[in-house]
Amino acid sequence: MTDSETCLQGSYVALEPLRHAHVAALKDAVHDGELWHLWYANVPSPDEMAGYVDAAIQASDNGNMAFVVKDLKTQKIVGTTRFYSVEPAHKRGLIGYTWYAKSAQGTAINAEAKYLLMQYWFEVQKANAVEFRTHFFNEASRRAIERLGAKQDGILRNHQILKDGSIRDTVVYSIIASEWPVVKNNLQAKLARLRTVANPDA
């Protein structure tokens, strides 16, 4: 469903197709907060980054698509996100493998990145649904997904064995096409408020 050359750009972020040339910038981004130490998140260490990027690029077929997230204010790469497990026949897929440098967390970057992805997914690709999954104990991720307007579908118990050997219960959320207009309006309002705070005299 997706195009390997697709670029999505907003006011705060640009989502560009992931390339091998991004490895160094992603190493810098992941050092900001040493994100790979978060046991409940699947974030690569600097030493794992080249393999992580290579695997993501190799998986970019059948509608799957990996992006780097560029902060337009600083022009720095601050993380990654992707469409994965896409099912073109059913017009649905997942958004995930999302992580951001610590300095980018709590800003407008995630809200706008998700807005751009879902706008493309529902309005260009005419998808039926988008799914999000996260670790049961990743409270920050769960709250962020819920703030988007996603509804919890259920919990996959003992779903994955993580690299530290622990077993992950995965919480599954989704947004369906009929819900997108309301989700879109809420995200647009949120981004408008953030722009007002950033530019009070504008």
Structure description:
This protein has 202 residues and is of the alpha+beta class. The protein has a single domain (8-198), classed as 3-Layer(aba) Sandwich (Aminopeptidase). 32% of the residues lie in helices and 31% in strands. The protein contains 5 helices and 8 strands; from the N terminus they run E-E-H-H-E-E-E-H-E-H-E-E-H. The chain has an 8-stranded mixed β-sheet with strand order 1-2-3-4-5-6-8-7, with helices on both faces. Helix 3 (108-124) packs antiparallel against helix 5 (180-198). The chain is globular. The chain starts with 7 loop residues before the first strand and ends with a helix.
In summary, what is this structure?
The chain has 202 residues and is of the alpha+beta class. It has helices at residues 23-31, 49-58, 108-124, 139-148, 180-198, and strands at 8-9, 13-17, 65-71, 76-87, 92-100, 129-135, 151-161, 167-176.
Adjacency order of strands in the biggest sheet: 1-2-3-4-5-6-8-7
The shape, in one word, is globular
CATH topology: Aminopeptidase
Question: What's the CATH H-level superfamily name?
Answer: Gcn5-related N-acetyltransferase (GNAT)
Query: Judging by the overall fold, what is the CATH architecture?
Result: 3-Layer(aba) Sandwich
Poorly predicted runs: none
Count of runs of 4 or more consecutive helical residues? 5
Give the termini separation.
39 Å
Structural class: alpha+beta
Number of domains in the coordinates?
A: 1
Order of helices and strands: EEHHEEEHEHEEH
